[in-house]
Amino acid sequence: MKFKFIEEKIAKVLMIGSSIAVFAFVLNIIYTIFRRGLPALNWDMISKIPAAGYYNGGGGGILNAIVGSLYIVLGSTVLGLLISIPVVFYLNVYLKKDSKLAYIARLAFDILFGIPSIVYGAFAFTIMIYLGMHTSLGGGILVITLLIIPIFIRSMDEVALQLPKDLLDATYALGATKLETIKVVLRQIAPGIATATLLSVGRAIGDAAGVMFTAGFTDSIPTSLGQPAATLPLSVFFQLSSPNADVQDRAYSAALILIFIVLIISIAGRLITNRFSKHKI
Amino acid sequence: MYSNRVLKNKIAGGVMFSITVASILLVILIGLGLYLKSVPIFQHNSFWHLITSSEWKPGSGEFGFLPFIAGTLWITFIAVILALPIALLSALFLTEYSKTYIKKWVFTALDILAGIPSVVYGVWGTLFVVPWISEKLAPHFVEYSTGYTVLAGGIVLGIMILPLLISLFVEIFSAVPREYRDAALSLGATKWQTSKYVILRKTFPGILAALILAVSRAFGETIAVLMVCGNIPLMPHSLFDSCYPLPALIANNYGEMLSVPLYESALMLAAFLLFIVVFIFNASSRAVIYKIESRFK
Fold it and tell me: Which residues numbered 121-160 in A keep a CB inside 8 Å of some CB on B?
């Protein structure tokens, strides 16, 4: 047999091997967390806040972190959408295709996308100190909003770039102003908004480095924006640093809860995305 | 005279323009803010001294960043060495060989991998990678290793950048027009030869750009790396030594940094270094990617 066919065989085996490796990593990660997290998982974990002495093996759960994370994700997603939809609309409808401003803006969002969350956290922390603010739910929401805006804009923009120009022209021909075409544009980029939200929520709920500086950590559930808030990733992290084996086991269950939430979001998101696609031309 | 609708249109345009410009300014603002915060430390040490000294004694005003920079470079290097071949091969498999339903499965796996929070990667690292290194791998090479090592950081980080690398590669490879492949195949090339001589060669700048993007992602990864690297501020000498990457340094010390003079400034310098590297890497690789995409359009 010619060498090139042998080479082809070897290459193919290596390629299939690599793709299987990707699967193996996913399965191994999920299996490892399940095996260690499931035994310590119980109803108290998700329905109670930490009792006194929780971090030395006392009773209670991590409801504070679950609620804190949900607050932060919800707040930042809403804020993020409010800021990024106008930007995407502006870039794609108001500005011309070859506009310099649009080019610079896209580059800026690409750079913002790459900035590590620890840098956002450090930056926001210095601003908060400057303003005399303490670690709080509001601070956490702001940092996560900064973190997810680039994700929102980049992924919505990708869909908006595919907008047929004829569609916009049709609305203009009917006498609509640029602002009024938003009704048409929004329907068209709805699947993009859904995907973007999905990505952002995933990133927002899993982020630890950004909220570490800004949201702080607490054992109670915050009742206002000015109070510190616990988050799931930090809860996992802090419990794992405990020397107590029981507390470490709870860290694994907390990680399991986190994975559950992320998986549910991604499955739900997929279903929603399909549904939102119905207006797409 | 403007009608109400036209006026609304104008106002909305102005508002949207200012939001857009504000977000562009944010990049500059972050850079400037971090720089201003790290200025005090330059009055005591030269920049060159700071990044080449390996003395780290905040209590006596010695801030040598070399161990941290070295730690970050080490784990990033290992992550890339591990992830690059897997990512290239599986991206080629997905674009050139696989059937649609296999693609769907692999993409689902990649989505899950991309969605797993970094703290969970950290937990997985401490449960799986660290014991594996200290019990199985390290005894063959060194007398003793805790497992919390450069190598553990590299492996965890490598898996974390896999989904980003593969999805970028798939995007780049798919941009190569069908005709290029047909031309190669009609000359009698095998699929692998086509991939090797046409696809990989044609997309080389794109591969480089994607790699730079992944590297800049790896640079900033904090919590997972912090959990598996050991965090000892000494120069690592082998794969089985602990290391202390820059982001971990910032995250670990944010609490007490205000009590030691210049400490805050030193940590902000660490953040500023990360920012600058990420800025340059992202800007250059994006420029390359834009160019490639417009070439094939």
Answer: 121-123, 125-127, 146, 149, 153
Say yes or no for a CB contact (<8 Å) between A114 and B126: no
| Number of domains into which chain A is organized | 2
Domain ranges of chain B: 4-42, 51-296
Q: State the residue for tokens 């390359």.
A: B288
Q: Which amino acid is at A71?
A: Y
Q: What chain A residue is nearest to B214 in terms of C-alpha separation?
A: A114
Residues B142, B158: Cα–Cα separation, whole Å: 23
- Give the DSSP per-residue string, A38-79: TTT--HHHHH----TTGGGT-S--SHHHHHHHHHHHHHHHHH
Q: Model-level pTM?
A: 0.89
As averages over each run of 10 residues, the pLDDT of chain A (281 residues) reads 86 92 93 90 82 76 89 94 91 85 88 90 86 86 92 88 86 86 86 84 88 84 86 90 85 91 82 69 58
Report in angstroms the alpha-carbon separations of B132 from B116, B145, B146, B243: 21, 11, 10, 18
CATH 1.10.3720.10 is the classification of domain B51-296? yes
**What ipTM describes this predicted complex?**
0.88
Does the beta-carbon distance from B283 to A111 stay under 8 Å?
A: yes
Q: Which residues constitute the domain of residue A31?
A: 3-37
CA nearest to B81, candidates B155, B186, B173, B153:
B155
Q: Closest chain A residue to B276 measured between Cα atoms?
A: A115
Say whether both A79 and A108 belong to one domain.
Answer: yes
Pair A13, A30 in one domain? yes
Asked if A141 contacts A75 with a C-beta cutoff of 8 angstroms, the reply is yes
Q: Which residues of B touch A4 (CB under 8 A)?
A: 189-190, 192-193
Give the span between the Cα atoms of A96 and A103, in whole angstroms.
10
Q: Phi and psi for B243 in degrees, rounded to 5?
A: -145, 175
A9 and A130 fall within a common domain: no
